[in-house]
Amino acid sequence: MGLTIDDLTVRLGKRKVLDGVSAELRSGRVTALLGPNGAGKSSLLRAILALIPADGGCATLDGTDITELDPRIRARRLGYLPQSAELAWNIPARSVVELGRAPHRSPFSGMTAADHDAVELAMALTDTTTFADRLTGELSGGERARVLLARVLAGEPDWLLADEPLSSLDPAHQVDMLERLHGFAQGGRGVIVVLHDLGHAARIADDVLLLKEGRLLAAGAAETVLQPELLEQAYGIGFERVGSSLIPRGRHAQ
Ligand SMILES: Nc1ncnc2c1ncn2[C@@H]1O[C@H](COP(=O)(O)OP(=O)(O)OP(=O)(O)O)[C@@H](O)[C@H]1O
């Protein structure tokens, strides 16, 4: 059981952006999704979430094809933090976080005590309580990113799929975000996170999926995938170990 990707193939326009990707993802662990620009990382998250159709294969959650789940159940079980921190509405931050409870509420019903508790907890975890009443248009990019994380956490999903969640955060909030994701997984839920920084991946990931040109180049425990030879194949540059870090050597390094 868990989240299984089975021979998933996706075309966007004329491009095959995912080509026969298969993997078993486990709850209680952080899976980092790595690979160069254009490798298909965002497409893989979006295909798992049934936001883009598969041309072949499928993703299943506890044995059920995710595309066959009722959309409300799907939204409850799979939380998505997309790459862009844009927000369509200029509303108070707390109202954005409250939207994360939508899959738990019936239309036109008010917020229950449980809804309020989940919102307050999510805001506390993301350090957003202090600007809960400010309009999102008045927040910095990093503050907006944290509000969006709070919105996903408020939905109490079983799985969190986060696409480059660190990109607009300062170092302190990057560390906070990594700890939040780690804590989320330690609570028994599943995390799939797209990362570019290999140091962050080494710090947080239990497992790694390494994509290149829409194909899975390697998958497994982080220490087995985060190896200079595999990373070189994926990114086309050399890597060397310095202490516990993997440092890029450049395209023409010997
Ligand atoms: N709507 C689209 N139509 C056609 N091709 C697309 C579309 N969206 C993405 N692609 C292509 O699909 C491939 C995979 O894109 P994707 O965004 O999944 O990669 P990524 O690994 O997340 O990249 P990055 O690290 O740059 O965010 C790229 O070659 C991209 O140009």
Automatic annotation (TrEMBL):
Superkingdom of this protein's organism: Bacteria
Alphabetical UniProt keywords: ATP-binding, Nucleotide-binding, Translocase, Transport
Gene3D superfamilies from the UniProt entry: P-loop containing nucleotide triphosphate hydrolases (3.40.50.300)
Domain ABC transporter, residue spans: 3-238
GO molecular function terms noted in the UniProt entry: ATP binding
Pfam families assigned to the protein according to its UniProt record, in alphabetical order: ABC_tran
InterPro entries assigned to the protein according to its UniProt record, in alphabetical order: AAA+_ATPase, ABC_transporter-like_ATP-bd, ABC_transporter-like_CS, P-loop_NTPase
Function, in words: Part of the ABC transporter complex HmuTUV involved in hemin import. Responsible for energy coupling to the transport system.
Name used for this protein in its record: ABC transporter ATP-binding protein
Source lineage: Bacteria, Pseudomonadati, Pseudomonadota, Alphaproteobacteria, Sphingomonadales
